[in-house]
Amino acid sequence: MKPVKVGICGLGTVGGGTFNVLKRNAEEIARRAGRSIVVEAIGARRENPDCDTQGTHITADIFEVARNPEIDIIIELIGGYDTALELVMTAIENGKHVVTANKALIAVHGNEIFAAAQKKNVMVAFEAAVAGGIPVIKAIREGLSGNRINWLAGIINGTGNFILTEMRDKGRDFADVLAEAQALGYAEADPTFDVEGIDAAHKLTILASIAFGIPLQFDKAYTEGISNITAADVQYAEELGYRIKHLGISRRTESGIELRVHPTMIPEKALLANVHGVMNAVLVDGDAVGQTMYYGAGAGAEPTASAVIADVVDVVRMLTADRDNRVPHLAFQPGSLSEMPISPVEEVVSGYYLRLTVNERPGVLAKVASILSESEISINAIVQKETHQQQVPVIILTQDVKEKLMNEAIVKIEALADVNEAVTRIRVEHL
Amino acid sequence: MKPVKVGICGLGTVGGGTFNVLKRNAEEIARRAGRSIVVEAIGARRENPDCDTQGTHITADIFEVARNPEIDIIIELIGGYDTALELVMTAIENGKHVVTANKALIAVHGNEIFAAAQKKNVMVAFEAAVAGGIPVIKAIREGLSGNRINWLAGIINGTGNFILTEMRDKGRDFADVLAEAQALGYAEADPTFDVEGIDAAHKLTILASIAFGIPLQFDKAYTEGISNITAADVQYAEELGYRIKHLGISRRTESGIELRVHPTMIPEKALLANVHGVMNAVLVDGDAVGQTMYYGAGAGAEPTASAVIADVVDVVRMLTADRDNRVPHLAFQPGSLSEMPISPVEEVVSGYYLRLTVNERPGVLAKVASILSESEISINAIVQKETHQQQVPVIILTQDVKEKLMNEAIVKIEALADVNEAVTRIRVEHL
Hints:
- The structure is a homodimer.
- Chain A is built from 14 helices and 17 strands.
- By secondary structure, the first copy, chain A, is of the alpha/beta class.
- Chain A has three domains: 4-125, NAD(P)-binding Rossmann-like Domain (Rossmann fold); 136-297, Dihydrodipicolinate Reductase, domain 2, CATH 3.30.360.10; 348-428, ACT domain (Alpha-Beta Plaits), CATH 3.30.70.
- In chain A, the strands form two sheets. In chain A, strands 7, 8, 9, 10, 11, 12, 13, 14, 15, 16 and 17 form an eleven-stranded mixed sheet that branches. Chain A has a six-stranded parallel sheet with strand order 3-2-1-4-5-6, with helices on both faces.
- The longest helix of chain A has 18 residues, at 103-120.
- At the A-B interface, helix 1, helix 2, helix 6, strand 12 and helix 12 of A face helix 1, helix 2, helix 6, strand 12 and helix 12 of B.
- Strand 12 (290-297) of chain A pairs antiparallel with strand 12 of chain B.
């Protein structure tokens, strides 16, 4: 069969990796796909020193690539929102199929992109947008298609997981590890996207849509970062038999879909608790299959390229399929998306780890306990750490409680004269 | 679109689970697939008390189902070799697509089944044949299609993993735990298939084919069971920082493909070492993606049904695709399968754990060490366990060595006058 011609837009880390893997594994890929995949053109402002692009047409004008009549599939790897959106829309307008690794673009503009693609009868594939090289979108969308998904929870930001892993392994503080991660290139100069959970929320938004069949609703995601976690919290969690992970969690409840990214304490024996460093993993609970987990590198040139190329091969396979039989962008047929609302975070039920700083004085613990008791919050453990100072940390582990009730209790606790500083709280999930 | 009509042959554990999940999740599945999946007929010798089959045609003659002109897809869940083969061939002959959970059938007769399917232009899908509900065939075949796979290693028999987990957790002996597993229904009355690694070898044979693009060659698989592992081995492994898992391992080497199932010591921190009880997991190393892992329930009614139904949905999607664009049965195009030989196990390189029973007498350790040294086998650790008996266990951990050299050294060690009983050996992999 005749080769499929692709255009790569963006030749940075992922673009370079994609070019190189397509070239290196050309034969292996053709043995699988039954036809060759040829890079017809590259749109990039500069060369990538890791790539031998000799013999491939390179232009600084990515839109030229998107309009090139020779090209079947546009691979968008420039990142960001505005130009990427314009590029993808131009490609669709020109009847090209699109493969992208851009989580921000899909999470924020996916609904309109998919509608445009539907109209022009082209495919948009985005496996690389979530969890890098792990084929988790394919697993949920196709591999678990017989299930009603109950919930999913994932470590879907490698930078955050690297920081938490280092804090635990070496007893170091957040700021200290972040600086090292930046030096190592694991964290950006502006780490907000990673450490405040925005990147994870982009990915979670996508996972939730394909798991539950709801439109992409990034603006409804609850996002909390890891910058307030101290070395002491990490250690206390450990003493209680837990680990702190920055999880994206989405759960189907009777009243709506939970969509939340926050530091979470999980039992140390849980498989997710043993996913270390920059690795990613997504745990999915389906009504038939039970729990399955998908683990691997969540970022990097070639892991991401692996997902991009798998998408290209998939698109190639579906080129001749009747459009109604293609895998829908969001796993469910566009007309079958559900209107289940995203639940406000106040409705979420979880256990809590609380860390208070109190004056060491008789009766303080009793007052705190009675506030919790009045709010009908059951205490699993309460520990006053010994120090030789006047202010001592108190650690409380609660049973499951609705977030709204916990918020009210915390306001009351913080109002106590002997409680200093804000209460630190970390949600506890037993998964 | 008009519904897809399936026939289920076999209404035991998996057949019953498949019927029930198809019924319970009919709406969710149709929202994804874009059309309904209807059970047109069931072929089964008896009813399943867990299934409400009212309104569905049941016949004791499975071949009637395979020939039913109304049916698009035959789901083979009767298990075993001969009748299953005849059923699948009859279905193919009648132009039906086939979905099966039968690992033995695919591993042993897959090549001829796929050839027949190719000729009749029908699909044969078998996700449920390996690792139950985990979509690992899809992951390797489609999700990692951009990679050259280097190796894979998996816990792919739940019974064996349950036994090893119990031996470790409770310090119990093999025979003892096996009896319990049989009582719990985790192990068959005749446990040979599970504990001797035959079931795992069936699954490994399939995984190796789709990973490396080679024909199915079950007869070349090296198979070693767990019945010789003692509680002491489990404990010594633990003391050395390892765990014993019954792994299926397939690796691409320059001289051929390794295909082997045997007890294996792996570092306790490895994610695979933390897969407990009846759970399954497969670790895959690809040149672009690095390591990814897939975890979940490897057996059971509904987990297996989950994979069966995913296959049905996949077949439905590909019904209208050009046949050359369908996902090939063994991941690689039939004409592109490689002739890489399966390596004899004597060529495999790994570390070794050896347990010797020796007379407590000066110079024994030195003699053993010098035999290993003469074979150029480096020792990582050698420990003589203290007992109050005349015969004491000696534990040796070696560096990587070719199996043939180790075999020769063991023959010499066993010939020593002060070494009693056969040497126990467990391969060590660092994955």
